[in-house]
Write a structure and sequence with these properties.
The protein has 1094 residues and is mainly beta. The radius of gyration is 35 Å and the shape is elongated. The chain starts with a helix and ends with a strand.
């Protein structure tokens, strides 16, 4: 709008400018004249100004909520203009004569955000005056001020900063984000979206929140916060620091079999991990220094994950690390101490006297029943010898021998700083982690160097990361060997020496190895790794609406594993010395690259139509190789040097493997927001890959999302409703977690020469028509915040239909290949999740807040359309006594066995329910049916957090209700104890669960759950061993205290000091008694953390 200033002064009576009216404007980045036009409409005023004196074409940022019109105009104009109002409501704008200062200087500078990017529209005021200005699009400002005055910098979404001029002519400022404002942005790893207008189902967690749960790794902390993010408990490996967790986000989308995992592949149900904008591995995230993490975002539905197309069906975990900050050198140091204590409370083993009594009742010492083939006199003699030992006090507790209290000590240091155009950051970290089994551990280390250069509209950043680990497995081997050790055997002989075999008196005539002896040998199992990653990113801000970015990553990884089992090990008892001792060396090399470019366009039309669009292309390549050597036969006393071995392993030779794939994709996305009422997301991506069939190299993926802001739509009472949104999405995503598939058949050279000469063997049979595994994802959610965020709640429901599935099936030996990939069936997964938090005490003024929270999740899955395609897998499961089946109408979590009616009191035999509904003593595999489901009915976390000024305490309890488990302790240590197994060993020599003595049938009329104590028949899978488990776990308890702005801190340059104490998995209450941590025990943890900022 253009008007004459002189006409305004001539014809209008001018009064002091004053409004009692308040309005709300949310327009984002617009021209000043567009903002004034909207103010005219909302406040019913008119403006008069001269285009020559008022630059109305400059860009301003408009985001005001219930703000005085006067304040809005001053903030937009920057107080460099005089504003007056006429009696008729016309506002006159003219240049303001600058305030004169006694010692006036011109101060210039650049204002940037926490990432070093320029911030346009920042208000800069001389404190105590109305002298002010705003930054231009490149973040530059210039203002006249007194050399002793103070400048005040303010911007929506950032904390207000005051800086003393101190006679300086150049003052650059880096704004600090307001943590509340951080919640308004969703980081997807490719683009950023305003949370208010984003239709996807996401959870964003700040680094401080993760560190408040625990200090091991970000994955363990994240499971406490988001109910859709589940770590499946590993009952074999327990707390082994070298294991990789099995992770699911919103259930399963794939069939997971051993054929779908190899040294290059992973779990096809595992989510995709993204670190600082580039895809990475679970191992990298596990070993990542927690103190470097700025935030983690969990993308769950198609609207949020479709940007990743063929990799997104299982969800995406986006990790952002801390970026260097401009200004004075800042140093952050963190020290973490963890104490892990082995949890052996779930072991219910016999003591020496109970074990001998069990042997007596089960017939070990009864002629005719005993497997020792001795006369009763001799049996009684040996029994009495053992009894004498027990009477002398021999009652060996073997479980404490291989375990220890493990300690972990970690250090993390990060320094950052920089000048106007260059910022830098240098980080170092090291962690020495001891496992609870002696000799096991993991040392991780890393360094990173971050460099950012900004000049005008160009921003270039480079992030170099070098990290690695050294991992050791325990020389004590499997914990199960110590759980089996007989308690009436001594650990050492009369001289205190550890013997090779336990049964030194030869009671059983069996070479029963002493697990302590094996631990004393020089066997080892170690792995070392080094990884180098470089991320280069560039950005060009073409104008206030268009931005171009590009990124390039290269990654090189080398892993070496050596496993040596000494020839003296008891497992080689009776084996030729030429084959005693084994050595295996495996080396894996991995190289990958990623190149991507993206254009982003954003604009606001008429103050109501906010549009953001992105167009991005990417190419990726990965090449992995493996070399393995296995040798056998070592002289006694050797250290595992393969040069001393007698030969390669029988019928073997050095092995190699290679896996190479390339991907290309193009993605377009758009976000539209109409007047803060309705918002839409649209994503379309095309992927090309060499993973699937050569005739099916390309596949499209897409998603559409919509949302509705009910607070703005119905003008709800904002004192009650801070926000209320409905959102939903539908889309098609994919899964490429099958790295060992091949789009072409592969032949290898045969080592055998026939009459026709040299030959080739078909090693991999390709399926050129193998279709991509795709998932249709439907999601709906409701989000609300009440009473100024005092109460927040989120409810999500979803459906994921994966069709077709990719499965590897066994082929007949006549084909010359083991398996063949094909498309078969579908998997339908449905679920819901709830996140609720409320604060009974919410006194921000006095810094007193008490918050209670509840999360819960429920998931159900169902197979369909298999018909008989997977019969070979079902036959294999039957032969291996697996509890899993692949059948239409049933879940991948279903447990299959013959239904048991219990133990017949008169005979001590098990009674089964046949398929026709009749009781029978005969176990028939045709009677196998679904008898349980391992997926919990409900799972989640109950949390309590109290903050009083600088002190905080939080308690997080995990609950799981309704899931069925197969109780291995009942199956293997109460029953199924053979008097002579396939190795010819009487398993009664091993220690067993106490219930094998107390709860088994002994005499007619006994009402028991378990068969006769003298029944040694092999036990088949039945529903007797499947039990419903309800669990409460003390997952995280935290105490924290923070020192900030204390007088004593300034003397040592300390800005902030944070102390934390944790307890993780400190207790576990279960409705069943089952052994946990079969090969490696679980642990209870107490830890401490110190964080200092200088």
């Amino acid at each position: 709008m253009k008007r004459s200033l002189m006409l305004g002064i001539t014809f209008f009576s001018i009064t002091a400018f004053s409004f009692s009216q308040k309005i709300s404007l949310k327009m984002g980045k617009v021209k000043l004249y567009e903002a004034l036009k909207e103010i005219k409409k909302e406040a019913n005023v008119d403006f008069f100004y001269s285009d020559k004196e008022v630059n109305v074409d400059r860009t301003v940022f408009v985001d005001f909520n219930n703000t005085d019109v006067e304040d809005i105009i001053y903030k937009l104009l920057g107080d460099t203009y005089s504003v007056q109002k006429t009696e008729d409501g016309i506002v006159l704008i003219s240049p303001r004569h600058s305030i004169s200062f006694k010692n006036e200087i011109n101060v210039k500078g650049v204002v940037t955000d926490n990432d070093g990017l320029p911030l346009p529209g920042v208000t800069v005021l001389v404190k105590g005056t109305r002298q002010g200005t705003t930054t231009d699009f490149d973040g530059n400002y210039s203002i006249l001020a007194d050399e002793a005055s103070t400048l005040v910098f303010s911007y929506i979404g950032f904390k207000t900063i005051e800086v003393e001029v101190g006679g300086k002519n150049q003052i650059n400022v880096q704004m600090v984000p307001d943590f509340k404002a951080l919640d308004e942005v969703v980081v997807t790893g490719i683009v950023e979206r305003n949370k208010e207008s984003f239709t996807g189902a996401v959870t964003t967690v700040k680094g401080e929140e993760l560190k408040a749960i625990g200090n091991l790794n970000v994955i363990e902390s994240l499971k406490t916060i988001d109910p859709s993010f589940v770590i499946v408990e590993d009952n074999l490996l327990g707390s082994n620091p070298n294991r990789l967790p099995n992770i699911e986000v919103r259930g399963k989308t794939s069939i997971s079999t051993d054929d779908l995992r190899d040294e290059f592949g992973g779990n096809p149900n595992q989510p995709l991990f993204v670190l600082d904008g580039f895809e990475t591995t679970l191992r990298t995230i596990i070993d990542l220094d927690m103190n470097r993490v700025s935030s983690i975002t969990v993308l769950k539905d198609a609207a949020s994950t479709a940007l990743y197309g063929a990799r997104a069906a299982n969800g995406v975990i986006v990790v952002e690390t801390i970026k260097p900050k401009e200004g004075k050198l800042l140093v952050n140091y963190t020290s973490d101490l963890r104490v892990d204590m082995p949890d052996l409370t779930d072991y219910n083993l016999m003591n020496a006297e109970q074990k001998l009594e069990y042997e007596r009742l089960s017939g070990v010492w009864t002629e005719g029943i005993s497997s020792l083939n001795l006369s009763q006199f001799k049996l009684d003699e040996q029994y009495n010898e053992i009894l004498k030992e027990i009477r002398r006090g021999v009652d060996t507790y073997w479980l404490n021998e291989p375990v220890r209290v493990g300690t972990t000590l970690g250090h993390s240091l990060y320094a950052s700083g920089g000048a106007e155009n260059v910022t830098y950051g240098l980080g170092l970290n090291y962690r020495n982690q001891e496992g609870v089994m002696k000799g096991s551990g993991r040392d991780t280390w890393g360094t990173n160097f971050d460099l950012t250069y900004r000049k005008g509209k160009i921003n270039i950043s480079n992030r170099l990361r070098i990290n690695g680990y050294d991992a050791q497995e325990s020389p004590y081997g499997s914990f199960a060997a110590f759980a089996q050790a007989n308690p009436y055997f001594r650990k050492t002989d009369e001289n205190g020496d550890v013997t090779r075999f336990l049964d030194i008196n030869d009671y059983f005539g069996t070479k029963y190895g002493n697990p302590l002896y094996n631990a004393s040998l020089n066997s080892e199992d170690k792995t070392n790794n080094i990884q180098i990653t470089n991320n280069l990113q560039g950005m060009w801000t073409v104008n206030d609406k268009l931005r171009l970015t590009t990124g390039f990553q290269i990654n090189k990884l080398t892993t070496n594993q050596e496993v040596f089992v000494a020839p003296e090990n008891t497992k080689f008892s009776g084996v030729s010395y030429l084959e005693s001792g084994t050595y295996t060396h495996t080396q894996t090399e991995d190289f990958s690259y990623t190149l991507n470019s993206m254009a982003t366009y954003a604009t606001v039309l008429n103050g109501k139509h906010s549009i953001t669009g992105n167009l991005r292309g990417s190419i990726e390549g990965n090449k992995s190789s493996r070399l393995g050597v296995s040798a056998v036969g070592f002289p006694l006393g050797t250290n595992g040097n393969p040069a001393y071995s007698f030969s390669y392993s029988p019928n073997s030779k050095p092995s190699t493997g290679q896996n190479e794939y390339r991907r290309v994709n193009l993605v377009a996305s758009a976000n539209y927001n109409y007047n803060k009422l309705y918002f839409f997301d649209l994503n379309y991506r095309v992927d090309g890959s060499t993973v699937f069939g050569s005739n099916k190299k390309y596949s499209p993926f897409w998603a559409v999302g919509a949302g509705w802001n009910l607070v703005n739509q119905f003008d709800l009472n904002k004192a009650v409703f801070t926000s209320l949104r409905l959102r939903g999405s539908i889309g098609r995503t994919g899964n490429q977690g099958f790295n060992n598939l091949s789009d072409v058949s592969i032949y290898t050279f045969s080592t055998y020469i026939n009459s026709f000469g040299q030959s080739l063997d078909l090693s991999t049979l390709a399926n050129p028509n193998l279709r991509w595994q795709t998932t249709m994802d439907y999601s709906f959610g409701l989000e609300t915040s009440l009473f100024k965020n005092r109460i927040t709640a989120q409810i999500n429901t979803y459906k994921k239909l994966t069709d077709p599935l990719v499965v590897k099936i066994d082929l007949p030996s006549s084909t010359g290949v083991v398996s063949y990939p094909l498309n078969a069936g579908l998997l339908d997964t449905k679920g819901m999740e709830v996140i609720f938090r409320g604060s009974p005490i919410y006194n921000l003024k006095d810094s007193k807040v008490w918050t209670v929270g509840l999360t819960l999740a429920a998931v159900k899955s169902r197979y369909d359309n298999f018909k008989n395609t997977l019969q070979s897998l079902n036959d294999e499961a039957l032969n291996n006594q697996s509890l899993q089946r692949y059948k239409d109408g049933y879940s991948p979590d279903d447990l299959w066995a013959v239904e048991s009616l219990g133990i017949d009191p008169s005979t001590g035999e098990e009674v089964f329910l046949s398929a026709d509904g009749n009781p029978t003593f005969v176990y028939n595999t045709s009677d196998i049916k679904k008898v349980g489901n391992s997926r919990p009915t409900l799972e989640g976390v109950i949390s309590n957090t109290l903050r009083v000024k600088d002190f905080s305490v939080s308690v997080n309890l995990r609950y799981r209700f309704g899931g069925d488990v197969f109780n291995n302790a009942l199956y293997n240590k109460v029953e199924n104890i053979n008097d002579r197994n396939v190795q010819g060993i009487d398993e009664r020599i091993y220690n067993q669960d106490l219930r094998a003595l107390t709860d088994r049938w002994k005499t007619p009329g006994d009402i028991t759950q378990f068969k006769s104590i003298t029944n040694f028949d092999a036990v088949k899978m039945s529903s007797r061993f499947i039990q419903e488990e309800n669990v409460i776990i003390g997952e995280s308890i935290n105490f924290g205290y923070q020192f900030e702005d204390k007088p004593w801190m300034g003397n040592i340059g300390l800005k902030r000091l944070r102390l934390n104490a944790y307890m993780n998995d400190i207790f576990r209450i279960s409705s069943i008694k089952s052994e946990r941590g079969i090969d490696y025990p679980f642990a209870r943890t107490v830890s401490f953390s110190l964080n200092a900022n200088f």
